[in-house]
Amino acid sequence: MNTTAPLLETVEFETGPSPTWSIVWLHGLGADGHDFAPIVPELVRRDWPSLRFVFPHAPVRPVTINNGMRMRAWYDIVHFDFDALHTDAGKSRADEAGVAASVAQVEALIARENERGIPAERIVLIGFSQGGAITLSAGLRRRVPLAGLAGLSTYLPEAPSQAAAALQAAATSQPLFMAHGQFDPVVPAAIGLRSSQAMKAMGFALEWHDYPMAHQVCAEEIRDLGDWLSRRFAG
Questions:
Q1: Which candidate, 188, 148, 181, 159, places its Cα nearest to that of 96?
Q2: Fewer CB within 10 Å, N- or C-terminus of the chain?
Q3: Rounded to whole angstroms, how far apart are CA atoms 33 and 173?
Q4: Rg of the chain over CA atoms, in angstroms?
Q5: Mean pLDDT per 10-residue segment, the chain (235 residues)
Q6: Which among 22, 92, 129, 195 is annotated as catalytic?
């Protein structure tokens, strides 16, 4: 894996001294590392080990669907069409070079956590929307499994043949949590479900949830994610 990418700037929060676990959490398009930091008090439970939350800022780049406006983005989005997603026909809505670069930057952050004394088996990678797409893409490429992957309101950016070609044998041992809003106007719920089915078909142990919400997170989702994380920490 390429871990030579420059380190992204991050927002970090530790829940106690000498963290023994890390959670790397990737924000969505146009947001930044501060976006999910306020969720930490809602999510964290008293019986959890000391955690380090790492919230990186995506690079600033022009985004085609937003008229080339520069904003924080994990990759360029070239069109709104989801129809060709999960088929090997048509042009991907995500630029492959941008996805690959962001996966490498996430790997560099994971490597830094390793250097800080947190092994891969005690690192969880979480992402929302575009950050979730990077989470799924990075997850299927892991040769050394992480403790778990969570993709929220998101989709797998690769076509089936690309995903299958990139999939590493050890990657499917990573537990996967995916959740989506039933009324999501940005990433349709059907696309999230189809992506979850694609990950399951590749061999990932999937836990899927949906909620009566739009492109957002809700209290019930944070509770379910917390339950799933508790099982990771207990395992």
A1: 159
A2: C
A3: 28
A4: 16
A5: 74 97 98 96 97 98 93 89 56 78 97 98 98 98 98 93 93 98 96 95 97 98 98 93
A6: 129
Cα(187)–Cα(169) distance, integer angstroms: 29
Which pLDDT value is given to residue 54? 98
**Residue holding tokens 């479900």?**
193
Which CATH code for domain 10-234?
A: 3.40.50.1820
* Edge-to-edge strands, sheet with 176-181: 10-14, 51-56, 21-26, 123-128, 148-152, 176-181, 206-211
95 catalytic? Reply is no
Residue 173 annotated in active site: no
In contact, 232 and 175? CB cutoff 8 Å: yes
State how far the Cα of 100 lies from the Cα of 80, in Å rounded to an integer.
20
**Residue 10, SS3 per DSSP:** strand
CA dihedral 60, 64, 65, 70 (to 10 degrees): 30
> Which residue in 86, 209, 215, 224 is the catalytic one?
215
Q: What is the pTM of this model?
A: 0.94
Question: CA-CA distance, 89 to 73, in Å (whole number)?
Answer: 25
Candidate list 184, 195, 196, 210, residue with the active-site label:
184
The domain ranges of the chain are 10-234
pLDDT for the residue numbered 42: 96
